[in-house]
Amino acid sequence: MSRFWKIALTVVVVIVLGAVGFRLLHKPGAEDGAQGQHRGQQKGDGQAGGQNGQGGQDTPVPVTVESVVKQDVPVYLTALGTVQALNTVTINPQVSGQMLSINFKEGQEVKKGDLLAQIDPRPFQAAYDQAAAKQQQDEAQLATAQSTLKRNDALVAKGYVAQLDMDTYRNNVANLTATVAADKAAVRSAKVNLDYTRIVSPIDGVAGIRNVDPGNVVTTTTAVVTLTQIHPLYVMFSLPEQNLEMVRKAAGGADPLEVLALDRADAHTIADDGQLSVIDNQIDTTTGTFKLRSVFQNTKGDLWPGQFVNVRLKVHTVAGGLVIPSQAVQRGPDGDYVYLVQQDQTVKMQAVKVAGEVGDSHVMIGSGLALNEQVVTEGQFRLKPGSKVKALKPGEVPAAPTTAEMDKAKKQAKQGGGGRRG
């Protein structure tokens, strides 16, 4: 590049920089005007916002309310319980022999006296027949001895039979009488062993999984099957020792205490026909609890041995308790509270004391509320003390805004917009 073009390029750059500087010197005035307009908009927005805020305070908040009601409330003690069979029997043969047949199905309900299995009876039948024959033989000998004694007894007085012979006859009759008695006992023993070849159920229950197949030789130590009685059955549970006096006092009444069994999630009741039967006679020093046993009829078979359930023991009933829905109670830093609807349709935070649960959806209030007072059950997150509310019944939907209310809202919106333009 020649010297001339270098000088020309430098002059052009200087001119451009001068023009840019001139523009920068005149920019603050425009910015001040824009800032003034921005401040005016903020002022207008503030006025509009103030109007909207005032309107928001005057608009009632729709909430669902319910009244405090009075009802009899049962008081329960809760615990984790275990279902236990009323009777559990392991079936063992009473005699040894070959298993001919199994006469039950695993899991089947059996009745007392039902045939469960059959052992080969032939050896025991033979022993029974032999004992019976021996009894008949000895009874015949006894009859002969008794006849001889009777005939000779009449000849003693005439001197035809010596007294020593009579003693021998009498002793022979006594000996044979004892032999016949022993034979009868042997017959009964053989009959018992013969009957033991038929294994029958000693209880009403449910058969478990069998341990022996037909054809095997079993002994008196062989466990054939285990029977479990489930109608009725027990539910065992424990309570803290501080509840002992309350439970003993309640159990001292004329009627037995009611017991409910619920599923592990406390979602629904499994059985409601339980009754407290036994309070254990000592407290477990390692856990500080005492055991209790309840009896359930379990007619439908809803409870099963070994099952874990939640137990509710009804100790007494509070007459005329104050009850509200549980969702009305809120948790605060100072304890439980509810939003109480006042006469002027505003709400206040009312501290309450929850005395216990009533079913799955309500609670009993110990203090803080009176009968027929109204508490907010839905919509609490939009409230603060002093908020004006529109009370709705459970399930009721707020009414649609009227034309006048919509026109008023539009007018307020336009006034807010004018403030922003000013």
Draw up the topology in text:
Layout: H1 3-58, E1 61-67, E2 69-91, E3 97-102, E4 109-110, E5 115-119, H2 122-156, H3 163-196, E6 198-200, E7 205-207, E8 217-218, E9 225-240, H4 244-251, E10 258-262, E11 269-284, E12 289-296, E13 308-325, E14 330-332, E15 335-341, E16 347-351, E17 353-358, E18 362-367, E19 374-378, E20 389-392, H5 403-421
Parallel strand pairs: 1-20
Antiparallel strand pairs: 1-19, 2-9, 2-13, 3-5, 3-8, 4-7, 5-6, 7-9, 9-12, 10-11, 10-13, 11-12, 13-18, 14-15, 15-16, 17-18
Helix pairs in contact: 1-5, 2-3
Describe, in plain words, how this protein is organized in 3D.
The relative contact order is 0.17. Helix 1 runs antiparallel to helix 5 and helix 2 runs antiparallel to helix 3. A hairpin with a 4-residue loop joins strand 11 and strand 12. The chain has 422 residues and is of the alpha+beta class. The protein has a six-stranded antiparallel β-barrel. The longest helix has 56 residues. The protein folds into three domains: 86 residues, no CATH class; 133 residues, Beta Barrel (OB fold (Dihydrolipoamide Acetyltransferase, E2P)), CATH 2.40.50.100; 83 residues, Elongation Factor Tu (Ef-tu), domain 3 (Beta Barrel).
